[in-house]
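Why predict the complex rather than its parts? Because the way molecules touch one another can change local conformation, and only a joint prediction can capture that. The input here totals 672 residues.
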Amino acid sequence: MRIILCGFGVVAQSFSELLESRTHDLYSKFGLRPRIVGVFDSKGCAYDETGLDLKKLNKIKKQSGTVRNYDKSIKQISGKEIIENFDADVLIETTASNYKDAEPGMSHIISAMKKKMHVISVNKGPLALAFPSLMELANYNQVMLRFSGTVGGGTPILDYAKNSLRGEKILSFQGILNGTTNYILTNMAEGMSFEDALNDAKSKGYVEADEALDLDGLDAAAKLVILANWIMGMKVTMPDIIKKGIRKVNTNDIKNAEKNGSAVKLIASCDKELTVSPVEIKINDPLCVNGTLNAISFTSEHSGTQTIIGRGAGGTETASSILRDLIDIRKEITKS
Amino acid sequence: MRIILCGFGVVAQSFSELLESRTHDLYSKFGLRPRIVGVFDSKGCAYDETGLDLKKLNKIKKQSGTVRNYDKSIKQISGKEIIENFDADVLIETTASNYKDAEPGMSHIISAMKKKMHVISVNKGPLALAFPSLMELANYNQVMLRFSGTVGGGTPILDYAKNSLRGEKILSFQGILNGTTNYILTNMAEGMSFEDALNDAKSKGYVEADEALDLDGLDAAAKLVILANWIMGMKVTMPDIIKKGIRKVNTNDIKNAEKNGSAVKLIASCDKELTVSPVEIKINDPLCVNGTLNAISFTSEHSGTQTIIGRGAGGTETASSILRDLIDIRKEITKS
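Output of the joint prediction:
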């Protein structure tokens, strides 16, 4: 299975290392023999139609900061050119999410699907801004568009709701979908001011380069868009979310919540409306998790309310979700 | 799809009502047109090769306490005879669990599989005592043996671990798998004595007719056997579980746990050993749920620890898990 990898940051490197370490078991268990035929980061590219040497690739990136140095004899071309000129079965999009125009991820995904490649995206931008039309494009081109890693990192929230609850009707759901803001709010509940809690989260590397993505609820809203489309069959995009971040949560709000046996959490909710907003959640509600944990509660017609809790991010975790998507795609291809 | 239903207690009645209310949507969504051709309870049976009238069946049972009165003109025969004389695609086994000889469920399941029927069991007894050999018998007869409702009621714990985490290696897990003991321990944490808490649970109808099944950890151990076989690929049965119930947990244990920021929970654990035993769990661990809730935490190689929380029992919930199994079987049959 030939793969083009867009971006080579933490998640993509973890994925590449995962493939390296699991070559044998992926083949014996799933008949999966993945070859990365092209990869690019912000500084350059590497490609080889017979498959790049993953060990070398991972080492070069670590040493020099770019895949450009993998093979200095090849011509440097753009990501777009790689997608257009190389034959591959699957494109994996891992460049950074942005919610203005979702580029360059949006163009990568569209070009790939038009070339009949299946797509795995852990980049939330394109899905948040254009989920319904990207899904249509995938159907039109008869390719699969997968995105397990966009919500819950390695915790298979999307899969759980879609597959494990098949035959059930999900009526509503609410979740803590952004670990960074949850970490900040947890610290505030323990007495820190918003500023101190934010700085602490920054010092631990939890905050996005553009802090607005976390603090203003954009990241949580993007995940809500994906969940609403995929699980509830809605056709919505980012502007449909009513959104309020945590910047205005102060020590008084936290104390009031505590008096009510509750804690303030940034909750993404799909009920009558789609909202992201700080909400008081009872301490003994399974949803009320602390630190960087993510949690989501689905309320279904016959099975009551079920909650899944897990780490919402992390390179290895998200890489393992890409692998799950890849195994799925392989399975579907073999079927037809 | 022709179904024989063994037992017609709370779960089976909920299932029958679920089928009644979802006839149209099951056909349009899943191509599923279930017909119950035979059913029996402890007092008698009802059968009709063209499918029983579910509305009438549910009404008669409610009014008279047995399905025997569905059609007084038919000859009353034993459950065994129904299984042997009727053609059906699926047998659903819902009689009460027992961990001595697992009868009559064990005979129902074995007879059905020998007759090439697929089996859905929510009866834990046969699986706890003979999981490996029942699975072999199913393979030998090329039928499916499903049991989603045995662990977690309507919370699809088995499915989550097996499917949503595909491509992942689960290293260990631990769970609160018995809602009754969790309810008792929760009450004790709030100050009740063991006896008062037990009586309160009894008055709410939470305790099994044979209270040892809950209090001595048999129910939790049976679920652990099922999880260990299905998810970890172990070949174990009830005697392999090291088991200790909650009868000896006293107010001091509860208070000591509280001092450590913990609570005493009856934990079923699969790590180096398979154990069911009262254990101190940190209050802020997602696993530490209260009341009748069930919870299980899976620790996997790449995705960290993930916890699922939900109601572990209930007629409607368990009925919805039978329906999921039925949809699965229908899907698999159509494939081949």
